[in-house]
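Just wondering, does anyone understand these tokens?
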Amino acid sequence: MTILDELLSAEEFRGLSPAEFFYRNREIAGFSNPVRALYQTVRELVENSLDATELYRILPDIHVRISYVSREKNIVKVSVRDNGIGIPLKEVPNVFGKVFYGSKYKLRQSRGVFGLGIKMAVLYAQMTTGSPVLVRTASPKSKNVHEFQILIDITRNEPIVVSYKTMNNTRGWHGTHVELTLEGNWSSARSRIVEYIKRTALIAPYASISFEGPGIELSFPRATKKIPVPPSVGKPHPRGVDIELLKQLIAYVNSSNQAVTLEDFLVKVFDGVGRKTARSFLKWAGYGPAISIDELSIEQLDDLARKMKGYGKWRRPRPLSLSPLGEELLVKGVRKILKPEFVTAITRKPSSYGGYPFVVEVAIAWGGDIPSVDRPLLLRFANKIPLLYDEGVDVSRKVIDGIDWSVYKIKFPAPLAIITHLCSTKIPFKGVGKEAIADVPEVERELEIALRETARRLKRHISRIERQYEVKLRYITINKYIGEIARALSVITGKESKVFEKKLSEIVEQKVLKGGGRGNESL
């Protein structure tokens, strides 16, 4: 036996559970230090609460509280309570104690993507303070409130229920209340968390959000009772397939124990594919419509996936699985938080990238309480999630910095804020931390179109303000000479100058102010 063989035989091989992987690599999910971890914990809890209400047409009432357990050790308690539908009793342990388990694995827009965030917060609390997560939950009309304390078995990726009890639901409350005790640097995370809460109130003007932290209390009452239409669960688009997805879909269809042809498979499983479209594609791809999906080999699945991606006559994905805010609600949210002099918004028509539907929304706000800045103040959102980190590498910043704003009568420093919102069943994030959107050409194009349209509206507003200013300046200038002209006319006619002053003032007001400056040449 060689030395290499001896070394290899001495190696111990074993696998890692998902929980253990993220325990070892918590930086990937944004839990790199006590500052970022505290921010990320608040974010995950608030977003879960919003999804638990919005998706069921419940106007959100969300209460967030951060308090010190030990100021010296930077140990804090984070609690978030909502008025959502609650969590089914049997699902509570897995929802909080099993990585990659949840209700987000559906083809529809939602704030959560990986089913990871809340479990990472539980893991981080467990490793920094050893404390379990406390969960209270009750469904609508439930007579009891259920309380759990849960830890995660990191090696097995399984929940450990430390305690469970029920309480009488005397107040008829429904929703979920979550408490976590963890190491968190509140003094350094404060500004980020406060900004996150403000931006969440902006993108969800129909939500009532209260926040209490050491030395601060904020309240954001809802600005409207109108709530966006919740997204529906959608079907995959044929342009977004690969071999593994085809295999999963075939297995799903086969679970019905019925023989399925390739044509029936395309029509039943994919978005926007009817009989005519399916037959046209199969003829183009060289496949018979009557082929059984069970007869397809791996090589044929590979070929089919490639041809589905390359076929140019698929319909665009339908936006049923999306829930954009809409221009009216976006404007209300901006007015509620930024208090601008002028705001306008646009919601673009649905588009797609790689077979995934998306909608771009953009608002431009000007003046009022917005501070003058050297370049546009950018507020980014994805599926109604505020994005606060990594702005410099986000596609929105790239597009904004590529626009010549002087074309739109904007000279910096200027009180200009831009709000961008991307809705999609699959946001093209640049990393697991979900803080920056990648430079996808289709998304970039839609952003630029929307930005330029809102910028043209702002230009028209600025032009009106400039005209009004010019009119007022002209009015003031002409008024300076009314007294002198009246006295001269008095000398010529022998009448009192006050008569002329009154008449001249009426003429100036009519011609300059009410006439918008027209006819001044005749004075």
User: Anything to note?
Assistant: Residues 517-523 have pLDDT under 50 and may be disordered. The first strand starts at residue 61 and ends at 70. The chain has four domains: 18-220, 238-310, 319-458, 462-522.
